[in-house]
Every structure is written in structure tokens, then in C-alpha cells.
Amino acid sequence: MIGHDCPVNPQSLDRANAFLAAVAARTEVGGVLTGTPADIGHELAFPDALSTARAVRALIARRRLEAAQGSYRLLDARPVDAGEREVLGRRPRKPRDSTRAPGRAAGTSSSSSTPMYSDVGRAAVDRLVELGREVAALRASLRAAREEARASREARVGAEQRAEALGAKVRELEARAEMAEANLRTLLASVRGREGQRDAPVGDSEMEAILGVLKGGDDAEEEVAASPGAD
CA 184, CA 214: separation in Å to the nearest integer? Predict the structure, then answer.
């Protein structure tokens, strides 16, 4: 292990110690953290994920945490001092190759023209939102069309029932009119067919019988049959 003198600024030191205290409150020394650093950073109201990552890196460099089982193991719960050095050294950066700079620049320019995954994902999400809106509009139109069809069907059924009732009433009235006409013809034929009384005036009883037939009552037929002129 290589020691490095990399002091921590006060704000980063406070965040690292706060993060360490939160981890110590969740697990014992030697135990593995059950939650995620992002959850702890959210609870501590860190401004962004980068601040949380810097706090974790500072604690790992000073042997307070270590990566284990996809999470982090608490090695030491002592707060980090302001002048404490890093125990774990960083990998030295490779020097830049000036001869490859043009190729890198070309690669950068070509990659800038190529769509990124974030752009593709954003476009896909926007398209999904638009499709969701279109589907919602189509469902609303379909619901309204179903309501209109149901109302039209109910109106048609009601009109058919009323037409059927009116047709039955008309047939009944026609039958009664035909019956009344037949009775009237029979009555007139019986009156005119009397011998020696063709020119005689119609009597009151016969007139009442004729009027009763014209009214179409059942009692009129009985009166016509019981009238003196009916044979």
C-alpha cells in the first residue's frame, strides 16, 4: 500500500464522517451494509450522487469501508481526522499520447454525431407518452360511441314497441269499423226490405239502433237484434 498526503476539505470531511456515522448506525463493525449508498446520501440530504460517491471513496481510501458482497463492509467506525492520510493509493494516470490526439479528436467528433443511449431512451419515452395519450383518446371515443349506440338501440326498441302497439290499435279499430258497417248494412236492408214500408219514416227505436251501431258498441248489436224491424 502506498500512502498519499491528500487532505480533505472541511465540507467533504463532514460529509464523509456523516456517511460513516450513518453506516455505523445501520451495521456493526465487520458487517456488510444492507442498504445502498444512494439511500444513505438521500437521508443525509447530500446535494447529488457525486457527493455520496466522494464520501464513499474517501472512507475506502482511509480503511473505514471496503467493497464486499456487492455492497460495503464497515471496517472502522472512528471518524476521519482532518489531516489523516489515504491508506490506499490511487492508480497513476497514464500520460497522454500527443501522437494519438488527432485520432481521439476524430473519434470524439464521430461519437458526437452518433446518437447516445440517453437520447434514444428519451425519444422512446416521449414516443411511449404520445402513444399512451393516443390510446386514452381512442378509449374515450370508443366509450362515447358505445354510449351513443346503446341510446340509439334503446330508442329503436321503444319506437318499435310503440309502432307495434299503434298497429294493434289500428287493426282493432278497423275490425270494429268493418263490423259496424256490416251491422248498418244489415239494418238498412232489413228496414228497406219491409213490404209496404219502404217509404215509411224510420222510427225512434230503429234510429237509436242505427246510432248505436254507428257508435260501435256491443250493446248496439243487441238493440238492433231486439228492435221491432229486425227479423
Answer: 7
The Cβ of residue 18 has, within 10 Å, a number of other Cβ atoms equal to 18
Q: Which helix (H) or strand (E) holds 65?
A: strand 65-68
Contacts (Cβ under 8 Å, ≥6 apart) of 39: none
Look up the pTM and report it: 0.37
Report DSSP letters for 185-196, one per residue.
Answer: HHHHHHHHTSTT
Question: What single letter denotes the amino acid at residue 177?
Answer: A
Q: pLDDT truncated to tens, each residue of the chain (231 aa)?
A: 444 455 668 888 888 899 999 898 888 898 898 888 888 888 898 989 898 999 899 899 888 898 888 889 989 888 988 878 877 655 555 656 555 544 444 444 444 556 677 778 888 888 889 899 899 989 998 989 998 899 999 999 999 999 999 999 999 999 988 888 788 777 777 766 665 555 555 566 766 776 676 666 555 455 545 554 444
Spatial CB neighbours of 155, under 8 Å, sequence gap ≥ 6: none
What residue type is assigned to position 120 of the chain?
Answer: V
What is the residue whose three cell numbers read 221491432? 228
- Which residues on adjacent β-strands are paired with residue 72? 67
Nearest of 195, 196, 221 to residue 210 by alpha carbon: 221
What phi and psi, each to the nearest 5 degrees, are found at residue 205? -65, -40
CA–CA dist 79, 14 (Å, integer): 9
